[in-house]
């Protein structure tokens, strides 16, 4: 035996031993592939040794060549056997024992829409103040929507440009305020109600308008209700809904069905009053229209205006949800896009 041939045969034995051990030890398809590349790959160890056969003395060259081929076959067979074993093992694990260490698949769960959540929270706070949650019809007559509320039919709000008319005096309600009149017509004071529901106006969809939108109406009527009770109820609500550190202010305003009327602003929840794009740099965000019920409304529905007083308010929970979550475009509330909605679930 010549020197080069002998050393090559020795190295082939060694390579066969290492290669078979590595293949049998491979616990995954990836590990097996790595072993294949190391020993049988184009630049692997066997290819390297085979490349040296040319320099073996001619008389022993065939023997070394045969041995190299035998090692190659042995490694290839071991590789195939191990691949089959791994595949069988994986299949067994799938329909056999469960892998208890795998994290479970989270089932898809729905959630309450952010506007619905605002509505529920508002109604819950007023429930603690003795208010009952009621509903009224979305298809309404001009009498309940306008006339009973002291809004003359030639008021711009009653215009066909702003209101969806279904018939000469049947409309889609433009606010939830007509439910005030419906409740008072059928109930004697004391009355305390909150009325969530949809209202409709002839606006196109844009970042801050929708032709159908949620409102919440509130109404309290009793003997002896004064502006102080009105203001403390609203302040209590603001503190609970927006947080104790949120201030509120009443700004004089006008609504035909309240006198005096006020718009209620709260400290901007984003900048806390210093001024930012959300509050248009005023530090305040308007959350509702309100006021003491105008005696003309009591007269229209048949309450004695000398005996009863009360307050009313109306707010837009869609807008409040936008402020609360920093939602830049009202249309997102209507798209039903699950990728947007699941953030609030
Ligand atoms: N109905 C009014 C609107 O849609 C909101 C409103 C203002 C309701 C004052 C009230 C109120 O009850 O007192 O703009």
Topology:
Elements (H helix, E strand, L loop, with lengths): L2 H23 L3 H12 L4 H7 L9 H35 L18 H15 L3 E2 L5 E3 H4 L24 E3 L5 H9 L4 E10 L11 E11 L4 H16 L5 E8 L2 E10 L16 E10 L1 H7 L7 E7 L1 H9 L6 H4 L2 H4 L4
Parallel strand pairs: 1-4
Antiparallel strand pairs: 2-3, 4-5, 5-9, 6-7, 7-8, 8-9
The structure holds 3,4-dihydroxyphenylalanine.
The site of 3,4-dihydroxyphenylalanine has 11 residues, from strand 8 and strand 9.
Report on the structure:
- With 345 residues, the protein is α+β, with helices and mostly antiparallel strands.
- It has 12 helices and 9 strands.
- It has helices spanning 3-25, 29-40, 45-51, 61-95, 114-128, 142-145, 178-186, 227-242, 295-301, 317-325, 332-335, 338-341, and strands spanning 132-133, 139-141, 170-172, 191-200, 212-222, 248-255, 258-267, 284-293, 309-315.
- The strands form 2 sheets. A 7-stranded mixed beta sheet has the order 1-4-5-9-8-7-6, with helices on both faces. Strands 2-3 form a two-stranded antiparallel sheet.
- α1 (3-25) runs parallel beside α4, α2 (29-40) runs antiparallel to α4 (61-95) and α7 (178-186) packs across α9.
- The radius of gyration is 40 Å and the shape is rod-shaped.
- The two termini are 80 Å apart.
- The model has no long low-confidence stretch (mean pLDDT 91).
- 3,4-dihydroxyphenylalanine binds at residues 175, 177, 217, 255, 258, 289-291, 312-314.
């Amino acid at each position: 035996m010549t020197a080069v041939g002998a050393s090559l045969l020795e190295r082939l034995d060694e390579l066969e031993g290492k290669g078979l051990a590595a293949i049998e030890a491979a616990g995954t398809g990836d590990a097996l592939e790595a072993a294949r590349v190391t020993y049988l790959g184009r630049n692997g160890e066997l290819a390297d040794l085979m490349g040296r056969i040319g320099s073996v003395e001619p008389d022993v060259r065939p023997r070394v060549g045969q041995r190299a081929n035998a090692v190659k076959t042995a490694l290839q067979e071991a590789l195939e056997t191990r691949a089959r074993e791994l595949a069988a093992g994986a299949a067994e694990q799938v329909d056999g024992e469960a892998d208890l260490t795998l994290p479970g698949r989270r089932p898809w769960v729905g959630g309450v829409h952010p506007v619905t959540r605002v509505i529920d929270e508002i109604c819950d706070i007023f429930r603690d103040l003795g208010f009952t949650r009621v509903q009224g019809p979305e298809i309404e007559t001009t009498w309940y929507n306008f006339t009973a509320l002291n809004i003359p039919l030639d008021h711009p709000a009653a215009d066909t440009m702003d209101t969806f008319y279904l018939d000469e005096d049947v409309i889609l309600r433009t606010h939830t305020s007509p439910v005030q009149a419906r409740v008072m017509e059928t109930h004697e004071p004391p009355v305390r109600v909150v009325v969530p529901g949809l209202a409709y106006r002839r606006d196109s969809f844009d970042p801050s308008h929708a032709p159908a939108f949620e409102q919440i109406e509130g109404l309290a009527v009793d003997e002896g209700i004064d502006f102080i009770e009105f203001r403390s109820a609203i302040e209590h609500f603001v503190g609970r809904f927006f947080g104790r550190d949120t201030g509120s202010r009443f700004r004089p305003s006008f609504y035909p069905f309240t006198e005096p009327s006020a718009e209620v602003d709260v400290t901007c929840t984003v900048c806390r009053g210093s001024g930012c794009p959300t509050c248009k740099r005023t530090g305040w965000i308007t959350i509702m229209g309100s006021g003491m019920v105008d005696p003309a409304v009591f007269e229209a529905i048949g309450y004695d205006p000398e005996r009863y007083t009360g307050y009313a308010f109306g707010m837009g929970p869609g807008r409040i949800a936008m402020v609360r979550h920093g939602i830049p475009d009202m249309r997102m509330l209507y798209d039903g896009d699950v990728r947007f909605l699941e953030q609030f679930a």
